[in-house]
Write a structure and sequence with these properties.
Helix 2 crosses helix 4. This protein is of the alpha/beta class and 327 residues long. It is 38% helix and 17% strand. InterPro entries: Peptidase_M28, QC/QCL. Its EC number is 3.4.11.15.
Length: 327
């Protein structure tokens, strides 16, 4: 009987502890967010994408490429940001020498804590995944244009607000991202990565000696209809806490249908070199499915303005802007 009483008393203590733990968990105050943030306008981001496409394919060493660079610099300057051109020469997979330009625009350059937001602004000189006009360059409305469009709208919004975030922001537009070997190339060199020429250059020779950022976000193909964004492999490997934070913010904002809580494989993109060579934890918001890979438009002529969706731009822009204000 005594042993049964002891067992009964122990069970009562366990139940009491469980109730106490449950009560403490319930009473834990919710996480607080900075909610007074400016409004991101998808129509504005869409117009910036359209303007890039209107120049024509932004293939390096062509007039549309040079004209777009001047326009991008002018837009950032019109927002009152400090702008630099990082000009350099790089060799392509097929032996061409290209004159490339990374464009860096800084908001609140005096702030010591900095966040890096990046995209690439060049477009592909061939449609090697298409079934026709394979050797013609693509519009790159989504692959290149959408990330730039979101960044320009972020810069515009920040330049106008009376309540800026507590951090400085460096917007970097990388050049020469999209000219790696085509699907049918035989000129492969396993010791050289021909993609992401601009980020490879910047990550080893940044625009400012000793430059560092708290973390970075890369925007690549962020405007397509029906886009879904998974947790990309290199992002999780190098900056899991940033990935989890941004995805949780997206869900908090009601964008869980776009930001999926599932990991995909690692993708060689500009963020890889920022992580590996510049030692800045950077994630990639990119449309890439673990089941189907890139979208049907990828490296085809279907990557045009018909693909761009204002809702997708709104979701990504709001999420990134919200993230900046939580720091």
């Amino acid at each position: 009987m005594k042993s049964r009483r002891w067992i009964y008393l122990i069970l009562l203590l366990i139940v009491a502890c469980e109730k106490s733990t449950t009560r403490e968990t319930i009473e834990t105050p919710p996480v607080s967010f900075v909610t007074t943030i400016p409004t991101f306008h998808a129509d504005s981001a869409y117009a910036y994408i359209q303007r890039q496409v209107d120049f024509g394919p932004r293939v390096p060493n062509t007039p549309p490429h040079r004209q777009t660079a001047d326009w991008l610099v002018g837009k950032f300057e019109s927002f009152g940001l400090t702008v630099q051109r990082q000009e350099f020469t790089a060799r392509t997979y097929d032996g061409l020498n290209w004159n490339l330009t990374n464009i860096i625009a800084s908001f609140q350059p005096q702030a010591s804590k900095r966040i890096l937001i990046a995209a690439h602004w060049d477009t592909r000189r061939m449609a090697d995944k298409d079934s026709e006009r394979i050797n013609e360059p693509i519009d790159g409305a989504n692959d290149g244009g959408s990330g730039v469009g979101v960044i320009l709208e972020l810069a515009r919004v920040l330049s106008l607000t009376d309540l800026p975030p507590q951090v400085g922001v460096d917007f970097i537009l990388f050049d020469g991202e999209d000219d790696g070997e085509p699907e049918f190339s035989r000129r492969r060199n396993n010791n050289q990565i021909w993609w992401c020429l601009g980020s490879q250059h910047w990550s080893t020779t940044p625009h400012k000696p000793g430059y560092s950022a708290y973390f970075g976000i890369l925007l690549d193909m962020v405007g397509g209809k029906g886009a879904r964004f998974y947790k990309e492999g290199y992002s999780v490997h190098y900056a899991k806490n940033v990935v989890d934070k941004v995805w949780s913010y997206a869900h908090h904002l009601g964008h869980g249908d776009f930001f999926i809580m599932r990991q995909t494989e690692a993708i060689t993109d500009d963020h890889l070199f920022v992580n590996k060579d510049a030692n800045i934890p950077m994630i990639n918001i990119i449309e890439y499915s673990p089941d189907f890979g890139f979208g049907h438009y990828h490296h085809t002529h279907a990557d045009n303005m018909d693909l761009i969706d204002r809702k997708t731009l709104q979701v990504v822009g709001e999420t990134v802007l919200f993230t900046l204000y939580q720091e």
